[in-house]
Amino acid sequence: MTRYLVRRLLHLVPVLLGVSIVVFVVLQLAPGDPAAIMLGAEATEAELGRLRAELGLTEPLPVQYVRWLALVAQGDLGRSFWTKRPVLPEGLERFQATLILTGTGLVLSTIFGMALGVASATRPNSLLDRVSAVASLFGASMPVFWLGLVLMVVFALSLRWLPASGMYAPYGARGPADLLAHLVLPSVTIAAASTTLVARLTRSTMLDVLGQDYIRTARAKGLGERRVVVRHGLTNALVPIVTVVGVQVGYLLGGAVLTETVFAWPGVGTLMLHAILQRDYPLVQGCVLVVALTFVLVNLVVDLLYAWLDPRIRYD
Amino acid sequence: MSVTPAAASTSARRLGLAPRPHAVARLARRNRLAVLAALVLTGAVVAAGLAPWLPLLPPNAVDTPNRLQAPLTPGHPLGTDEFGRDLLSRLVWGARVSLLAGVSAAALSLLIGVALGVLGGYYRGGVETAVMRTTDVLMAFPYILLAIAIVAGLGPGLRNAMVAVGIVGFPLYTRLARGLVLSLREREFVEAARALGSPDRRILARHVLPHLVSPVVVAFSLDVGVKILATAGLSFLGLGTQPPTADWGAMIATGRQFVVLSPHVVLLPGLAIFVTTLALNVVGDALRDVLDPRAAAR
After folding, report:
1. For chain B, does the N or the C end have fewer beta carbons within 10 angstroms?
2. Which residues in chain B touch residue A292, judged by CB atoms under 8 angstroms apart?
3. How far apart are CA A163 and CA A244, in angstroms?
């Protein structure tokens, strides 16, 4: 297992390198000059040249990339072209906000999705099962940004039960209760589609598992239905469920930019969007690296969880 | 010796290339929802295709005195937007954009993904490694963020949004095609063709690719809806269709600020995206039931 872990951690390096090269190349090939965007249309050629030299944009592309890579190896993601502030602390601060949002969405979608899936599987073709099937189709078809706006109109602007935007109220103590109130609508928005997906997968996996001989044996032994379903059924259905939950992390991280835009949530998604539009290369590259690293680490954790959940799976 | 059409049809059906008429009719009777969805989809496609000839107001005609009119206003059945433009007309013209974007992006993903997947699954060694590592790199990143980066690189616009979404979406088809080809290349008929001296190109075209058609068609039909949502998302962020072109995602973005006064400006385009994607998903599920009876039995 240790050898597998080391191999997988080493495998992260070429994947992250690949991601950073793709984003670097795409940004560098983009029309639009960061110096011109920063100084505006009135800038002279001399001023533009001075700023380009200051930002290191006059060097050949491979040199720019290697210089950036050397900084990354020392834990320095460079400085934003616009704010001149170090990328790492700003990126991490915004990433923390995105993690709070996507983490809450992931927890909600996993808990409710699995509960709904188990309930549907134990009562196939019931009203609950059919409603769950319809909800699953609806969840997969609904644009997340539209759902967010609808929830905002109903619960924040019409009923005034919850705040409409932001992570905290502009005035007052930024306590947990304030955060929780602001978190409800964005996290429900981001969790909606994932919940239905987890529910359908849980249902289909549980149906397979509940049809197995050992389940019939457990019932024949006189075990209670709850023990049969949870202890014997759900435990054996967890591997594919964990897989799809792991995949959902990527979906939630990606979908966060749309939810963050709707609810003005100060996350890394909106930071990256603005940085891309402003050609703030160090900020984009740094944020891309942080998000990609999170995603591949989550995939690794999911793979390691397989071995814990199913003792038959061994990595040598 | 010529092949009779009946024999060709039987062969095609055995390969899963032709629909099974009785199966389709049986499923249509059982699955009325799929029939309804197919009708909705057909209506959307026909309306989008005939938009230039339908009796609609020009989609970009500004009429500021009549801005933000509610639905059922005389002359504007679905109301007007913040510039006084007729919403019914913009929704119909927006259907052309969204359907084209969804189908084009999905087709691009399919072409790139299946080509790479077939190569990666059939040729082992360096080719397979290169294909799978490329796929891993793309799948290591939430696709919408990469699509944003590509669009920002190419410049905002519908065509670039379709290209970006098409490029980041190919791993799905690569993995599907590679998995299928990996099992097919070990089958006896492929071995026999190889033993008879058939070149790889002929083996892939005659013996391998036909088996990919059904699963790839099912994946494509479900993927079009995903691509419509993705391109609408890029338009919502200002990276897709540029104003004043009618686009459902862009209509939601610009209508946001008036959502309290006139919620229909946001609700109607969102409903259009939702209903179209829902119809595509229902039809895609039904298509899977027809083309893959084992999936239907689950």
Report:
1. N
2. 140-141
3. 31
